[in-house]
UniProtKB/TrEMBL annotation:
Keywords: Endoplasmic reticulum, Membrane, Transmembrane, Transmembrane helix. This is ER membrane protein complex subunit 6. The chain crosses the membrane at residues 50-74, 100-126. GO terms for biological process: autophagosome assembly; protein folding in endoplasmic reticulum. GO terms for cellular component: EMC complex. The lineage of its organism: Eukaryota, Sar, Stramenopiles, Ochrophyta, Eustigmatophyceae.
Length: 129
């Protein structure tokens, strides 16, 4: 992931004003780097939903509650893995304009349909045909 705070430090050095130290760190992040980081997180979570759905289908998970549990477990594990990678190199707010607890549940609804598609496809291909 790109570190937008490096650009933030360069911008702060060039426009340092002792009276303007109340600016939030979010407004000083380098926009292309933040967009790149958000795109990487989106791709990782999209792949997670595809593989989790296929795994749930192949394993024969049936029922909406069991499927939701599989999705929640995979989404949480993926988010914790991404957080661990980010935490090893700095704070989450240095890379994305969100807090760590909001990062855990972000975009879950966006990837639910991909999970459902691959869950039903995996189940159908393995257990029905």
């Amino acid at each position: 992931m790109m570190d937008p705070s490096m650009m933030q430090a360069q911008m702060a050095a060039s426009t340092s004003n002792p009276e303007s130290n109340d600016l939030s760190s979010r407004s000083q992040l380098f926009s292309p780097a933040v967009a790149h980081n958000a795109q990487i997180v989106e791709h990782v979570r999209g792949l997670m939903s595809i593989f989790a759905g296929a795994a749930a289908g192949v394993l024969g998970v049936t029922g909406i509650i069991q499927g939701a549990c599989v999705f929640i477990i995979f989404h949480t594990l993926t988010s914790l893995g991404l957080l661990t990678k980010i935490k090893l190199t700095g704070k989450v707010s240095n890379y994305l304009p969100t807090k760590w607890y909001a990062f855990l549940v972000a975009d879950a609804a966006n990837h639910l349909l991909s999970f459902l598609l691959f869950w039903t496809m995996g189940y159908t291909l393995i257990h029905i045909y």
